[in-house]
Amino acid sequence: NSVKVLRSNVRRVFESVGNGLRADHGDDGKENKYIIELQELLTTVNNNLRDVENSVSNLTPPPGAFSLGNTTYLSQETTQERQALYGQLVNSYKWTDKIREYSALAGNILQTNSFNKTYKTFSTTKRRKTQTSNHNVSPEVIENLITGIDRLFPDVTITTNRPFVPNPVIQASLGRVLKAIIGFKGLMIEWVVVKAHAESNDQWSESRYKVFRKVTENCHAAMCHFHSPMMPDLAVRSFM
Predict the structure, then answer these.
(1) pLDDT in tens, 155-170
(2) Domain's final residue, options 20, 40, 55
(3) What single string gives the DSSP state of each residue in 135-160?
(4) What confidence tens digit (pLDDT) does each residue in 59-92 have?
(5) Looking at the domain assignment, is residue 220 inside a domain?
(6) Which one of 28, 40, 95, 103 has the fewest beta carbons within 10 angstroms of its own beta carbon?
(7) What is the pTM of this model?
C-alpha cells in the first residue's frame, strides 16, 4: 500500500512540473506560489519514501538461500554464453509447469465428458483395417491442406516455415493487427499462440498484451473442441 501511495504522489510531482504555472496561481507572486506547491509535493514524496523504507525493514527475511539445485554452479561460469543458461532454464521450468497444469485440466475435462463418436462400423467377419497415423504423413499432404486453407481466406496472409521437418509452423496474419503462430504435428494442430503484429515470432513465448493472451486461450479451447483423430483435415479447416 505504501508503494502505491508513493507512486501516486510521484505522479503528482511530475504532473505539476509538466503543467508549470497555472491560472489558479494568480498574477501576484505566482512563481513563489508554484515553488511552495512543488516543495510541499516533494516533502510528501520524501515522507512516503521513508514509509516504504520502514515497511521494507520490517519484512521477515527468508530463513536461508533458495535451493536452485545444480543451477547454482552456473554463477561460477565466466563465459557469457553459459551465464545466459540460467534464464533459459527458468523459462523451461515455467513451460513445464504450464504443460503440467494444462494436462491436468485436459484430463479432468476428458473424464467428465465422454466422447461416443462413431465414424465407421466394422463387420465382425472382416479383418479390421489398420488406421494410418495422423502424425506420420507426407509433407505433400500437409502442404496441400495449407494451400487449400490459404485459398479459403483471401484476407489472411499465411506463410509456412519448417524448422522441424516435416512438421510445419504456419503464421496467419490478419492485416497489421494480429498474427497466429500455429504448430502442426502431422495433420494435427499441436500448438497455437496469438500475438500482436509487431511482436516476435517466438512460438514458445506469450504475448505482452492481455487481449491476445485471452485470444490464445480461446484458440486452445477451439483446438480441443474441433479435434478429430478420424478426420484431421476437417478438424483443421473447422478450426481455421
Answers:
(1) 888 888 887 667 888 8
(2) 55
(3) SS--HHHHHHHHHHHHHH-TTEEEEE
(4) 776 565 455 566 656 656 666 666 667 777 777 7
(5) yes
(6) 28
(7) 0.44
